[in-house]
């Protein structure tokens, strides 16, 4: 069963994405395929340094004097966090991918919640989630400063 899932995920990864939405779907497929390895601690969840910085000072403006500096900081966060909220043209498709992937990961690793706690994967995921929240807050703050300073068109 696990082999079949990995082969299916590899097939998804082999497809060349034509749009940003397709790239996002491929990224979700990669995450789904790697989830069982993360659950048992075989693949460690690492918090990107940029998000650790955002946790320390989400509302700081040190070194961000110009509109170009702000735009660069927002782009860096976009690179780490992924695109800002963009509605999916077909929300059912996105939900199907998440639900199916989560179900498959749950079937591969029995007692998934317990395994994740024992392996440390749950704790690492909580740390990543907290840092991601700080990164999202920082990106929103920087976008607000960008607009307030009347910088050119939105990023």
Low-confidence stretches: 1-18
Name the helix and strand elements from N-terminus to C-terminus, one letter apiece.
Answer: HHHHHHH
Helix content: over 70%
Question: What percent of residues are in strands?
Answer: under 5%
**Shape type:** globular
Mean pLDDT comes to 73
Task: Calculate Rg over CA atoms.
Answer: 18 Å
- For the termini, the CA-CA separation is 44 Å
Q: Care to describe what's here?
A:
This protein is mainly alpha-helical. It has helices spanning about 1-15, 20-40, 50-55, 65-80, 90-110, 110-120, 120-150. Helix 1 (about 1-15) packs antiparallel against helix 2 (about 20-40), helix 3 packs across helix 7 and helix 4 (about 65-80) packs antiparallel against helix 7. It is built from 7 helices and no strands. It is globular, with a radius of gyration of 18 Å. The longest helix is centred in the C-terminal third of the chain and has 28 residues, at about 120-150.
Features:
155 residues, mainly alpha, 7 helices, globular
């Amino acid at each position: 069963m696990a082999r079949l899932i990995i082969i299916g995920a590899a097939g998804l990864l082999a497809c060349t994405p034509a749009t940003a939405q397709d790239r996002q779907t491929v990224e979700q497929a990669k995450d789904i395929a790697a989830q069982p390895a993360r659950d048992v601690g075989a693949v460690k969840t690492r918090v990107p340094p940029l998000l650790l910085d955002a946790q320390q000072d989400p509302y700081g403006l040190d070194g961000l004097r110009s509109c170009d500096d702000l735009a660069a900081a927002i782009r860096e966060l976009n690179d780490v966090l992924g695109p800002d909220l963009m509605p999916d043209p077909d929300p059912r498709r996105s939900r199907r991918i998440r639900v199916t992937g989560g179900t498959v990961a749950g079937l591969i690793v029995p007692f998934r919640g317990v395994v994740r706690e024992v392996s440390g994967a749950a704790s690492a995921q909580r740390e990543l989630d907290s840092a991601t929240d700080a990164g999202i807050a920082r990106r929103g703050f920087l976008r607000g400063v960008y607009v307030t300073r009347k910088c050119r068109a939105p990023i």
